[in-house]
# Entry
Amino acid sequence: MAEGFEEAAADLELPEVDPEEADALLAAELAASAEDGAEAEEDPDAQEAAEAAEADEAADEILPDGDADGDAEADEEEGDEVLDEDGVEVQEHLKDAVEGSLRLKRLLSRDDGEAGAAKKQKLSPEQEKANQIITKWGLQADGVVKHVLEGMTLEELQAMSDSGYAPDRFNMWKSASELLARYVGDMRERKGPGGGPLDAVSTFKFRWKIDMEGEKLLRTLCHKDLRYVMANYDGNTPLADVVAEAASVQPEDNSTENALPEAPGAATMGRFGRLELIDPLADAAVFGDANLTFALKLAKHRKALGHVGRVIATTFEELDTLRERYKEIDESIATLEEHYAEVYHGVDCTRIALDPRFEGMEGSLGAVYYNFPHSGAIQGFFDGHPIVNWRHENLMRLFFRALRSFVKPGGVVKVSSNMGAVGVRYSYIVSSGIENEFMHSETIPFMDWHLHRYGRSYGDKRDAYKRPDAKNNQSYNSQRAEADMVYCFTYTPSGDTLPKQTIRLPPSLKTLKACTDGPFKNLQGLAKESLVKSLHKRFVTEISGTHVG
# Structure
């Protein structure tokens, strides 16, 4: 999971196709063509019947985000399976941390024929609505548009239908499916708190649906009272009563959080997040730190504050790859070890429950950092294209679910990203955290953060010739610095068992074959079939925890 860039399609290459495999595909295609021709001669209605059957099957495939009966039935069957990876059984208390990742791999590994062989069921309301919309647009033949609609709820489908929206089928720059995916993402974000700066009062107001008068009252509170209200308000007792109670309560200890009790509340709480005053005793983990410059910054910061907790620095790439890209990597590792940090390579942050190096760390992390997450670019596609964007959304969903087993209650998680990113959208970060009981505490501008001056990188092979420079992040110019944000969360587990982690369904082989833009533009026959198989293979490889690119 590389440190990100957002819009530009990178110069990463897809896996090469084995010549023998290509010959086999060609032979199969010729044989299939001959067989189809023979059948057509025997039965003039064969083609028409086949097309009708395919249309019925396509209609049955529209399942909104795994909530339809067909997917629910599949999940029920899979629920009794022993979760393991390559024969390694997952510990019982960690199964929930990795179940979504393994389920996603199983979905990717399925052959389309399995879905076609399943017993047909009555169309769900979501399927019926999606069919109405796609027919109204005249895009029944667009399998990628259909794939986007599969990921929408009935409420979202109805809202879009009522709005009168229709993707521009003749847009010169974007396909109808890409325009639709962007519209759906924007529609969902309009219901959220926004991707820009939000202080503790703003996030608290959104979380509890507090009115303007309540917000004004909160902003008049001192630091001591505001912390008390935020810790004790439950939505049942009137806000004014909790505020009155806060005035009569005195802090019981001399912890850092209780410093400056009479200072302005919102501003003082904001300084805590910006100055990175984390638990001095707990361990801190950094994920996806391609060149380890952020981990170095954090280790030096913790040493200066007298912290005794470890810094666990991780990279997604293996050490040999890092040495090719960053000539200073060995020196960086040595400096980290001098600061008593531990450095792990080849770490997939969504699958740490399967990583033996994290064994015994359950509930020990007091702070976790993931700067500018990205699932890697695929040549020919922009990050927002629905063929590849599901990877970015699932990255955040699976990341936060994995953290539940390793972050201590009250621990903080900070994910940096650009508020206008179209790969890992800010809404993916915020919603994934919230649904896994990580309370969204605030959003601070990246440039206001005490730890922002580190050597950012692309996190892929371009780093071999585009050197990082920590000074004002001048080496990294793919985004506007003023739009970079740090999304801050606090782990507040309820003790309840959460439902299975929702995941964005990946495109099937049939959907990939239906794609006509990006790298598939102008491709037909064997060339397209080869690219489809290569891309699908890459998806399976990535979800298995292997970096590509």
About this structure: The two ends are 10 Å apart (CA to CA). Strands lie at 84-85, 88-89, 283-287, 311-314, 342-344, 365-371, 407-418, 438-445, 484-491. Residues 285 and 312 are 5 Å apart (CA to CA).
